[in-house]
């Protein structure tokens, strides 16, 4: 393949990936996304630019059920633990957290996303049922840091 085609293909892939993320209506389950995402849909068009401010880190972590379940106190603490290679189950165990509660939180959020996709018509009922049936195994393997197969 010619170098020009590789560069063009790569550029197209990056643009499609970024534009998909910018136009999504949901913030994903990862608490790390909270640090870098601003939910544009919640901004009111009538406000001045200076009034559009992302919530502070203290607001994001205060009463966060994920931090409560993991036994962590901040997004930074969670980020550092994940960055060092720990799974969510290891983080919860180290901080006297509740691994099952972490799994339940993720299952609830992913089930809600599936319900919204079904209601929006982007999933058929058969696809919905198949994906919902796989959720517990996918979430559990993710929490324990294993590959789902």
Number of strands: 0
Q: Structural class given helices, strands, pairing? A: mainly alpha
State the domain count: 1
How do the helices and strands follow one another from N- to C-terminus? HHHHHHHH
Estimate percent helicity. 55-70%
3D shape: extended
Proportion in β-strands: under 5%
Largest sheet: none
Runs in which pLDDT lies below 50 for 5 or more consecutive residues are 27-45, 47-62
Mean pLDDT: 75
- State the separation between the terminal residues, measured CA to CA: 33 Å
What Rg, in angstroms, do the CA atoms define? Answer: 19 Å
Number of helices: 8
Explained architecture:
- This protein is an all-alpha fold.
- It has one domain.
- Helices cover 63% and strands 0% of the residues.
- It is built from 8 helices and no strands.
- The longest helix has 22 residues.
- The radius of gyration is 19 Å and the shape is extended.
- It starts with a helix and ends in a 6-residue tail after the last helix.
